[in-house]
Amino acid sequence: MDHTLQRQGRAKPDGSGQDVSAVLIAGPTASGKSALALEIACQLGGEIVNADSMQVYGVLDRLTARPSPEDMERVPHHLYGHVPPATAYSTGLWLTEAADAVADIRARGAIPVVVGGTGLYFRALTGGLSDMPPIPAEIRDPLRTRLEQEGIEPLHRDLARLDPAMSERLRPADRQRIVRALEVVMATGQSIASFQGRRGPQIVDPERARCIVIDPDRALLHARINARFERMVEQGAVAEVEELLALNIPAQHPAMKAIGVGPISDYIRGDLILDEAIERSRAATRQYAKRQMTWFRNQLGAGWQRLQS
Questions:
Q1: Contact 304, 126 (CB under 8 A)
Q2: In which residue ranges of the chain is CATH 1.10.20.140 found?
Q3: Is beta strand 209-214 parallel, antiparallel or unpaired with respect to 22-26?
Q4: Hey, what CATH topology would domain 6-130+201-218+292-308 get?
Q5: Which of 65, 114, 159, 272 would you call most buried, defined as having the most Cβ atoms within 10 angstroms of its Cβ?
Q6: Of 33, 68, 266, 179, the residue nearest 23 (C-alpha)
């Protein structure tokens, strides 16, 4: 894969690494961001921190395109594959762990290089998310199960009883927002609205960081996606999904929604041939990359250096 990047716009200086407190690299899947992070970390004496919500999970190392063992040996990598797939991970949990990782890296005199495709993680890292309370699993998991089994209407009725004002603001189609609002009021006794104005901690000051977003040519990105998924299958992605299914994790858990898990599961059950599973996974990856690119273009401001692969 060609990781040569053409600069667009004005970059903040990095030099020996003394002019920046961190490097942030966002980009869609298959855009070459992990290779760029490795290159920059090697140049600056940095350490890499994962900001991808699926690469945190164990088992799915190939299917989530986690960095190779060889790359992880070249520089220290943090927050990759450390979460059991049965765990419902959240942005709040990631932020807590990322804050510890960044502090430890800086304490060693190194530069944290944060890389990934989950936009909310970058927003949280730079203090741009509301300071929401943690939700205990004993509240969160039953609600997610009810959503899958009963649909959103009963949950919307519960929200109307516990938080009428928020219920009126949310339409029945706002499934995730309804569940989130219900989680918060059940966990705290307070409306989610009381938390939305509170800003979370700023772990990385974007004014003192080098912020990069990769905005690749779409045709080239699609070609990379197609080729990469075929390599994933050749390198053992089907065995990973078999291992995941053996854990009997509920379908609503985030790890079960990783791209490729559904089609490959259908192949394992005999409902699809392998070529169909690969093509469906490629199509889902292309759609996901499109959503990522749209989010980055709309949400990451002028302080982010745009690079085109």
A1: no
A2: 137-196
A3: parallel
A4: Rossmann fold (3.40.50)
A5: 114
A6: 33
Helix (H) or strand (E) holding 301: none
What does the alpha-carbon distance between residue 6 and residue 82 come to, in Å, rounded to a whole number? Answer: 34
Each residue's pLDDT tens digit, 28-87:
999 999 999 999 999 999 999 999 999 999 999 999 999 999 999 999 999 999 999 998
pLDDT range class, residue 19, cuts 50, 70, 90: low
Type of residue numbered 108: R
pLDDT digits 0-9 by tens, 277-299: 999 999 999 999 999 999 999 99
CA distance 293 to 307: 12
Q: Where are the beta strands (DSSP E) in the chain?
A: 6-8, 22-26, 46-50, 77-78, 111-116, 209-214, 305-308
Is it true that domain 137-196 has CATH number 1.10.10.410?
Answer: no
Pick from 116, 110, 106: which is nearest to 44 by CA? 110
Task: List every span in the chain annotated with CATH 1.10.287.890.
Answer: 219-288
Verdict on whether the full-model pTM lies above 0.85: no
State how far the Cα of 161 lies from the Cα of 21, in Å rounded to an integer. Answer: 47
